[in-house]
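During the second half of the funding period, the structural biology subgroup turned its attention to how the target accommodates small molecules. The most pressing case was 4'-deoxy-4'-aminopyridoxal-5'-phosphate, which had performed well in the primary screen but for which no bound structure existed. We therefore specified the complex as follows and requested a full 3D prediction, including the ligand pose.
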Amino acid sequence: MINKLQQVRAFIGNTPLVQLDYDRLEIFAKLEYHNLMNSIKVRPAYHILKAAIKKGEITPSTTVVESSSGNFGIALAALCRQLQIKFVPVIDPNINNAYEDILRALSYRVEKVTERDRTGGYLLNRLQKVRELLQGIPDSYWPNQYENPLNYESHYFGVGSEIAHHFEVLDYAFIGVSTGGTIAGISHRLKEKFPKIKIVAVDLVGSVIFGGPPKKRHIPGIGASMVPKQIERALIDDVVMVKEIDAIDGCHRLFEEHGVFAGGSSGSCYHAIHHYFSEMDLVERPKVVFLCPDGGTAYVNTVYNADWVAQLRQEEHVTS
Ligand code: PMP
C-alpha cells in the first residue's frame, strides 16, 4: 500500500513562494494551492495515512472516516482512491458547493450534518457523527486532524521547513487557524531558525479558538467552534481577528492587486497584514510571509460572487 501512496508524493510540497509588490513591507505568499488537490491539507493527509499504513492501522479493507470542512476531506478522498480504500467524509452546510461535488464524486459515501451545535457552528455535531460512524463501521480508521500530532508534524517538516530554507532573515509569519496544526508546526520550525520572528495567528470573528464569543460564520477552512488541542503547541505572539467581510475584501485585493486567486483564509491573512501594520511606524521594511492554503476556484459561488457578498453584508448590517 505504501508504494501506491508514494506514487503521488511528487505532487505534494515544494510549492511556490512569491514576493508580492508592496511598498511598506516585503510580503511573500506561499501558494499552497499548487499541491495535489489544490490545498495545503494534502500534506497532513499524506503523512497521517502513510504512518497508519506502516503501523498496520490501515489495510485494504479499512474505511477512513473524517470530519472536514472540505480541503482535508478532498485530500483524503484522493489519497484513499489512490489506495483503493473507502472514505466517508462528514461535512456541513458551510462547505463550498464545488467541494461537496468533488467529495461526492470521489468518496465512498458523504455524511452531511445539518444541525448547528451549541456554539452556532457545526463542528461538535460533525465530531459526534464521526464517533457514531466509527462505532458502526467495522475496521474503520479516523485520522482525527484535530488531535493527531502527525498533523502538526507534517507542517513542521513540510511547509515550515520549506519557508525556513527560503529565507536568511524573516520577521513575521501570518497563519490562519482552524485545527491549529499548521500554525503549531510552522511556528516551531520558524522559531528554530529565526528566534525573533513574530508568529501572528489569524482567525475569523465568531470563531472561539482565541476566546471570542461564538457567532455564525460562512467561510470554510478557517476558525472553529471549539478550541483545538494542537493550538496549545503553537508558539503564537499575536492574534488578529478578522471579520468575514474584511476577509472577502482581502481575497479581492489579493486577486486584483497581485493576481493571486485564493480562498477565504488567504484573504483573511492578507487583510490581517494590512490591519496589523497600518498604524505601525516602520523604519525598515519587515519581511512577512503568509500562506495561501487553497485557491479561489472553489469560492466562485461565495467570496467571488457579488450577490452572495451583498447578502452577507446585509446580514452583518442587521446583526451588528
Ligand atoms: N485555510 C484553509 C483553506 C484550510 O482548509 C485550513 C484547514 N482547515 C486552514 C486554513 C487552517 O489550517 P489548520 O487546520 O492547520 O489550522
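Two results from this model are relevant to the next phase. Residues 127 and 165 are 37 Å apart (CA to CA). The pocket of 4'-deoxy-4'-aminopyridoxal-5'-phosphate is lined by residues 39, 41, 69, 71, 176-183, 221-222, 263, 265, 293-294 (CB under 6 Å).
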